[in-house]
Specification:
alpha/beta, six-stranded parallel β-sheet, two-stranded antiparallel sheet, globular
Length: about 240
């Protein structure tokens, strides 16, 4: 599917996390595994690497060690990682994105994963690059050499990014955030989204300590109904029905 679509003025916006929301695993973990395969000195890091559900000190250690992995990443590594991840994405997401756009609702993706990996996968689902925000690598030819500076490195990076989008006019109308982790919940609790959907289908279920316009999705196929329910006070004529393929 092409990532090029006619421009339209959305009536609302839905922002998705990527890892453990669209993809049933951590794309950065998969990339690290692909990059350091055969490098025995980094195997211990791979076994322990997990960016979520850790203390700040442990996350810093993971991030520091991932920098060591970056120099093992090249364009061939990226292509191999994409090929491994592509069949893992539930086809319901491509249908959901099409349904959203048909209803005048614009899907966006904000991820702490890496643009080079996730953007080709999302392009195939109809999401153009301008609607994808993620971390990026710095490159020298075909070789990654470092991680580019990014507001997404902090726990409230998504909050700051969405605030900037609103200030610039990139986001017009109500906003629903969908994700599995605390950075996603922070978007809602900090007033940057009008609704929040906790994506519980790829993780150990979380009961978020939130109040107001939020819901919990137990399957990807249920997202369309949750989105409709959260947006119905703003768009009462919106109807979507996306079934699992």
């Amino acid at each position: 599917m092409s990532a090029d679509h006619p421009a339209f003025t959305p009536r609302a916006n839905v922002i998705f996390d990527f890892d453990l929301t669209i993809l049933p695993e951590e794309s950065t973990h998969r990339l690290a595994h692909t990059a350091i395969r055969g490098h025995s000195q980094l195997n211990e890091f791979l076994e322990n690497f997990q960016l979520k559900n850790k203390s700040s000190r442990e996350k810093f250690s993971d991030a520091f060690n991932f920098i060591r992995v970056v120099t093992k990443i090249n364009k061939a590594t990226i292509r191999e990682c994409i090929d491994q991840l592509r069949p893992k994405i539930d086809p319901v997401f491509g249908a959901l994105f099409s349904e959203l756009k048909s209803a005048g609702i614009k899907p966006h993706i904000i991820s702490s994963g890496y643009f080079e990996v996730i953007s080709p996968l999302l392009n195939e689902l109809g999401i153009p690059n301008q609607d994808i925000a993620a971390n990026r690598f710095l490159w020298l030819g075909n070789q990654a050499i470092f991680i580019a500076p990014s507001p997404l490195h902090g726990s409230k990076g998504k909050v700051a990014l969405i605030n900037g989008w609103k200030s610039s006019g990139k986001l017009v109308g109500p906003v629903v955030m969908i994700g599995d982790g605390q950075p996603d919940r922070n978007v809602f609790s900090n007033g940057m989204a009008d609704g929040f959907i906790q994506a519980n289908y790829y993780i150990n279920p979380v009961n978020p300590n939130l109040s107001g316009n939020f819901s919990i999705a137990e399957t990807p196929a249920s997202l369309s109904e949750h989105i409709h329910e959260l947006l119905s006070p703003y768009l009462p004529d919106t109807r979507m029905s996306v079934k699992a393929a």
